[in-house]
Amino acid sequence: MKIINDVKFLIVGLGLIGGSYAQALTDLGYEVGAITRSQSSIDYAKENGLIAHGSTEISGDYVGKFDVIIFALYPKVLVEWIEENQSLFKSGALITDVTGVKGPIVYKIQDMLRDDVEFVGAHPMAGKEVYGVQNADKSIFKNANYIVTPTAKNTEKAIEATKQIGRLLGFKTVSELSPEEHDEMIGFLSQLTHCIAVSLMDCKESEKLVDYTGDSFRDLTRIAKINDSMWSELFLLNKKELLSQMDLFMSKFTELRNALEAEDTDKMREMMRISTERRRHFDKK
Amino acid sequence: MKIINDVKFLIVGLGLIGGSYAQALTDLGYEVGAITRSQSSIDYAKENGLIAHGSTEISGDYVGKFDVIIFALYPKVLVEWIEENQSLFKSGALITDVTGVKGPIVYKIQDMLRDDVEFVGAHPMAGKEVYGVQNADKSIFKNANYIVTPTAKNTEKAIEATKQIGRLLGFKTVSELSPEEHDEMIGFLSQLTHCIAVSLMDCKESEKLVDYTGDSFRDLTRIAKINDSMWSELFLLNKKELLSQMDLFMSKFTELRNALEAEDTDKMREMMRISTERRRHFDKK
User: Fold this and answer.
1) Do B279 and A219 touch (CB under 8 A)?
2) pLDDT (tens digit, 9 = 90+) per residue, A30-87?
3) CA atoms of A98 and B14, how far apart (whole Å)
4) Binding-face residues of A in 168-197 toward B, CB within 8 A
5) What residues of B are in contact with residue A98 (Cβ under 8 Å)?
6) Which of A89, A196, B100, B168 is deepest in the core (most CB within 10 A)?
7) B8 close to B34: Cβ distance less than 8 angstroms
């Protein structure tokens, strides 16, 4: 805690992630405020000790009090919020976010931002299949990864402070990627897997299949319960990268399909041996 | 236990599943014997109280003692075993199996089988990513499904006895499907999901991705660790059905891909809403 010390945190957007950030930071003794659209979310967060105070209004008096402002909004709303209200930020404030796509967000914000405040992108890879501040739970960060995505515009001090936030929140690993590396990685590891789960679940009226379902189908489709407004926005923001990951997957899947059609056992077994070997790396952690 | 009572069980093939069957039945007080290729598996099973006795030889003296014979072998070996040794079965014996594909196995065995013994197919939908009798563990049946696949050739008595075995083993649900219904269902729920996991894992050298991997990728690829000789055999046995399930999945996946390319948000969101709604059914159990 060399850099972050005695700072006041503002969370903009009190949903599951914003609420969980608030909980973790308040529990560490920081003063945490919130701006969010619904008064009932603020009331809930205050009553349950997640925040010290909050507002449904965006005012200079309130926003200007905070040293660190964390945006937990949908991507488009986030960019608009900063566009319209950046004059309210305290000079020297650190701004960060939780958005799942980085390239299109980070550069846009940095390009328009005042020179006396700094934005460093961050992506907490944590979540739940439930929504809202009522489900806030800082323990979702415990085994999760937190990725900071700085650019050439960022200072070492602000990058380090943003990483420090990830450590304070209790993430298992805190790492650094360029926005482009982040979007490629997330396209493959997260967005592609969600596309697979959604497509698989859409194949059949599967209600009657529940009685026969083993763990494999259940595991593969857990993430098919998906917030359609948020994820469609994230998919579109990462369109080029996600399309290329989807095409890569489709080409591998087609390889296996064609090996089966041709009864090419050697090819099928080779693909299975590769997957078995590679999957082992993921057991170590 | 109206039908099965004081019966002696023979397990042919002491691997993970055969060993777990043996453990469950021995623990209930039944006399369980085993035939398997390796003496060390028999030694292990005896020393650990999974079986009363066992043999690496296939002899009439031994096989003829048993009322129920459960085959836990790979599909081709199973059919060959019965072809070569069916003269050794005790008259009136009930024969069953654990094979993951039913159509090509059940009819082949029933067509060649002696008239005074009866074969009823069964599929215990349970497993682990480890192999061998040393990993035998009857608790894998506890939350799992057991499916009996009778044909017109089977008697009510033998069907009921086979179901009773599933209940004795401790399966959560015991149900009945035709071999054809079974193979369609398993093609979709199990084989297709394994094809997806293998293809996804084969896409990239993913070792460097471990640090960024969230639960979704981990869950989707858990079953990418796969016994390549067994699964390639099962895929080929169910080739027609699996190809049709793979094509169905690919068409849905392509629908989502093309919606993304066309930036058709409504279509993407509709697919996500369907998957979310359908996946809810799987939470209830």
Assistant:
1) no
2) 999 999 999 999 999 999 999 999 999 999 999 999 999 999 999 999 999 999 999 9
3) 51
4) 173, 175, 177, 185-186, 188-190, 192-197
5) none
6) A196
7) no
Contact B160, B167 (CB under 8 A): no
Min Cα separation B176/chain A (Å):
10
**pLDDT band at B4; cut points 50, 70, 90:** low
| Closest Cα in chain B, distance from residue A272 (Å) | 6
Domains and CATH numbers, chain B: 8-177 (3.40.50.720), 182-283 (1.10.3660.10)
CB A106 within 8 A of CB A152: no
pLDDT of residue B188: 95
Cβ-Cβ contacts under 8 Å, A147 against chain B: 212
pLDDT score of B5 more than 80: no
For residue B192, the 8-state DSSP code is I
B148 to chain A: closest CA residue: A212
Distance CA B164, CA A159 (A): 64
Cβ–Cβ below 8 Å for A261 and B243? yes
ipTM surpassing 0.95: no
Distance between alpha carbon A59 and the CA centroid of its chain, in Å? 27
Closest CA to B58 of B75, B83, B23: B83
Kindly identify which residue of chain B lies nearest to residue A184, measuring between CA atoms: B209
- Concatenating the DSSP letter of every residue in A221-259 gives HGGGS--HHHHHHHHHHTHHHHHHHHHHHHHHHHHHHHH
For the segment A101-152, what is each residue's pLDDT rounded down to a tens digit?
Answer: 999 999 999 999 999 999 999 999 988 877 899 999 999 999 899 999 999 9
Of B223, B250, B271, the CB nearest to A198: B271
Partner A contacted by B107 (CB < 8 A)? no
Q: Can you tell me the distance from the alpha carbon of A73 to that of A105, in angstroms, rounded to the nearest whole number?
A: 12
Query: What is the average pLDDT value for chain B, to the nearest integer?
Result: 94
Give residue A208's pLDDT band: very low, low, confident or very high (50, 70, 90): confident
Please name which of B166, B159, B83, B185 lies closest in space to residue B126, comparing C-alpha atoms.
B166
SS3 content of chain B, % helix, strand, coil (to 5): 55, 15, 30
pLDDT beyond 50 at A2 = no
Of B236, B229, B246, B234, nearest to A273 by C-alpha is B229
Q: Residue B199 and residue A144: Cβ atoms within 8 Å? A: no
**Measured between alpha carbons, how far is A147 from A125 in angstroms, rounded to an integer?**
8
Task: Report the alpha-carbon distance of residue A247 to residue A225 in Å, rounded.
Answer: 23
Adjacency order of strands within the sheet including A68-71: A53-55, A31-35, A8-12, A68-71, A94-97, A118-125, A145-149, A173-176
How far away is chain B from the Cα of A213, in angstroms, using its nearest Cα?
A: 6
Beta-carbon separation of A275 and B226 below 8 A: yes
Going by pLDDT thresholds of 50, 70 and 90, the confidence category of residue B2 is: very low
Portion 124-163 of B in contact with A at CB < 8 A: 125-126, 144-145, 147
